[in-house]
Design brief:
With about 500 residues, the protein is of the alpha/beta class. It contains 21 helices and twelve strands. The model has no long low-confidence stretch (mean pLDDT about 95). The structure holds 1,4-dihydronicotinamide adenine dinucleotide and D-mannonic acid (CS2).
């Protein structure tokens, strides 16, 4: 089967939307670190619409700081890939041309630094996952013990972390008299722009305090709230698209029809007019971020651990089980809803109902295992802030404790039929050795995990109400199983 590329583009079936501009006549003004599935279905998609409207300065140079996988997918396709939107009403196909090329940091760090230091590059955006910020999730401070940070402080000319790349590129720009750029985090972190600014400045202070001052003065770190459910693409997805497209596309990404992007209007220089294609430019992103991280991502993680342990491989599958729909609704309405400030005129009930419909979208096979990844980096912003506010207000914590018990049960790495669970987490060794020490002793396991202050901070580590509530759920999971427990509790 022929491969999608600039030459075969004209063979693609008519029902596929195409780039409406001459890709040889547009320039790259954005470098994106972490060119995974989400970037290609979200930021690149918004930018594609702008290019289709005639914008000429905003093509994207994508970069991976980890593997050459996406470069190997897109380079033979001249950067082209298909975005497939799947919803309950059907699907839509669009070939996206916004990605000019993909660089691989580990293979050629100087090429990537040159692209980031180029005067045409006005924006460096990031989707590097929560763990890519090398920070302490509880405080937001740069983790100076992190091996990538240790490496980059010693060899800044040859960085490995995104933080190292940003500081090295900014140093080159300063030395060359090139104005600074805007560093825009598009990851699911609260105050993501502030977190990025803090770790970049703290890193630069270790290298050169004058450079740190320059970055503070001239670089901008806008916060963003990003939202579109984009599962990892499977081989089955690629094979299915091949028959629909009539061409092989290794870089295809799948997403739900829904998309939202709220951006703090805080840029160092020129920027794309993303507001012309549906993004929201605002003074303050905080309320949008909190609502999305606590309601959508908080529920996603709750359903991922309880669903996976109950034998459900995907979110749409588990949303066919009434007990999970009830669990999700009560969690949203009570545990989370009670802590949210509702923007004036915002229909919160509709937003929550729409979230449950999005979870139930039969067009997407979003694996519970994928969402369950990196819990130690996700849980602080998805559950723990809500928990702190509920504890302070003597409010409801039951289902937040159920969620934490499910996470701990998942971390043991042994499923309810004794099958091994492939737990992916930067702290997996530490977490599993603690749990192994107190095998199936729920109170001791809970106390040990709560004791990890990088995750739980000093306050939650010593919170007695938490200890007993989480242990009760974990006991029930060990004795009755997760699904039976949830059916009985909801
Ligand atoms: P992905 O697995 O397709 O891509 C992850 C990207 O991050 C890859 O380019 C990888 O090389 C890079 N990466 C991973 N660890 C890194 C590290 N330590 N340092 C630097 N780069 C690193 O995942 P996907 O779907 O693109 O998601 C990425 C992030 O986007 C998520 O963690 C989340 O913050 C955000 N996001 C994802 C959504 C989704 O539904 N997939 C929706 C909203 C936000
Ligand atoms: C998911 C998110 O994998 C995960 O952690 O909860 O990627 C989720 O799909 C997005 O935030 C939706 O916008």
């Amino acid at each position: 089967m022929q491969r999608l590329n600039a030459d075969t583009l004209k063979q693609v079936s008519a029902r596929v939307e195409m780039p409406q501009y001459d890709r040889t006549k547009v320039r790259a003004g954005i470098v994106h670190l972490g060119i995974g599935a989400f970037h290609r279905a979200h930021q690149a998609w918004y930018t594609e619409q702008l290019l289709n409207q005639g914008a000429a300065d905003w093509q994207i140079i994508g970069a991976s700081l980890r593997s050459a996988g996406v470069q190997q997918q897109l380079a033979p396709q001249d950067g082209l890939y298909t975005l497939v939107e799947r919803g309950a009403e059907g699907e839509r196909f669009q070939v996206v041309g916004a990605v000019k090329e993909v660089l691989v940091g580990p293979e050629d760090p100087q090429a990537l630094l040159a692209a980031m230091a180029a005067a045409d590059t006005k924006i460096v955006s990031l989707t590097i996952t929560e763990k890519g910020y090398c920070h302490d999730p509880a405080t937001g401070n740069l983790n100076l013990e992190h091996p990538d940070i240790q490496h980059d402080l010693a060899q800044l000319h040859n960085p490995t972390s995104a933080i190292g790349y940003l500081v090295a590129a900014l140093r080159q720009r300063r030395e060359a008299g090139v104005p600074s750029f805007t560093a825009m985090s598009c990851d699911n972190l609260p105050d993501n722009g502030r977190v990025l600014e803090q770790v970049v400045i703290q890193f630069a202070e270790q290298v050169d305090t004058e450079l740190a001052r320059w970055i503070q003065a001239y670089t901008r770190f806008p916060c963003t709230m990003v939202d579109r459910i984009v599962p990892a693409t499977t081989e089955a997805d690629r094979a299915e698209l091949e028959s629909q497209l009539g061409l092989r596309d290794e870089g295809v990404v799948l997403a739900e029809p829904f998309s939202q992007w709220v951006i703090e209007d805080n840029f160092a220089g020129p920027r794309p007019a993303w507001e012309a294609v549906g993004a929201l430019l605002v003074k303050d992103v905080y309320d949008y971020e909190v609502m999305k991280l606590r309601l959508l991502n908080g529920s996603h993680s709750l359903l991922a651990y309880t669903g996976y342990l109950s034998g459900f491989a995907t979110v749409s599958e588990l949303m066919t089980e009434p007990a999970f729909v009830r669990l999700c609704k009560v969690f949203m309405d009570r545990e989370v809803g009670e802590t949210l400030k509702v923007p004036t005129g915002f229909d919160m009930e509709n937003y929550k109902r729409q979230l449950r419909e999005r979870f139930a979208n039969p067009g997407l096979k979003h694996r519970t295992w994928q969402i369950a990844m990196d819990g130690s980096q996700k849980i602080p912003q998805r559950w723990l802030q809500t928990l702190r506010e509920q504890l302070a207000g003597e409010g409801h914590i039951e289902l937040l404790c159920l969620a934490l018990a499910a996470w701990i049960r998942y971390l043991t790495g042994v499923g309810e039929q004794g099958q091994a669970i492939d737990v992916q987490d930067p702290l997996v060794e530490r977490l599993q050795s603690l749990l192994k020490m107190y095998e199936r002793n729920a109170p001791a396991q809970v106390q040990a995990v709560l004791g990890i202050q990088e995750i739980f901070g000093a306050d939650l580590s010593n919170e007695p109400r938490l200890q007993s509530c989480i242990s009760d759920w974990l006991e029930r999971f060990y004795h009755q199983g997760v699904l039976a427990t949830i059916r009985a509790a909801t």
